[in-house]
Amino acid sequence: GRARKWYDSFDESTMTAEVTVYGDDDEEVVEALPVKFEVCGLCDGTGSHVNPSIDSGGLSSDDFYDDPDFADDYGSGRYDVTCYECGGKRVTPEIDTGRLDARQKEVLEELAQRAQDDAEYEALVASEIRYGC
User: Is 11 helix (H, G, I), strand (E, B) or coil?
Assistant: First the structure.
């Protein structure tokens, strides 16, 4: 699967990303934020990574010792897929905080608060699942 993007759309020609926030009366408002390219954090700028179905559960030295052919294939990139985050571009758009105006700083604060609220909600749901709620 693809990683979840923090923005709704990205325009490389203007180096802006559009995000949806909520206005004073809870109506949706689309705001544009300046962005710059950063090395992709998922693939470290290589454009690909090992398919998570191969190693997301973790691998140990035993996995390679018991199957030398697997070790060779793994090391050669046979199990690599195009990066789920950057789509092979090796970079991702990130907010250019040095170019934000006052309104854009407010939008960034709202996005940070939303991310924190989402993380707290997901932790609560995970906790309820663990306790059988």
Answer: strand
Tokens of 66: 């018991």
> Residue 117: enclosing H or E segment and its boundaries?
helix 102-130
Rounded CA separation 113/66 (Å): 48
What is the tens place of the pLDDT at every residue in 73-91? 887 888 899 999 999 999 9
Range list of β-strands (E), 12-132: 16-22, 28-39, 48-50, 80-82, 91-95
49 in Cβ contact with 90 (< 8 Å): no
* pTM for the full predicted model: 0.69
Interatomic CA distance for residues 91 and 45, integer angstroms: 6
Residue type, 85: E
Task: Categorise residue 112: left if φ over 0, alpha if ψ from -120 to 50, beta otherwise.
Answer: alpha
What SS3 class is residue 9?
Answer: strand
Tokens matching residue 11: 């325009």
Q: Which helix (H) or strand (E) holds 55?
A: helix 52-55
Classify residue 97 by its DSSP letter.
Answer: G
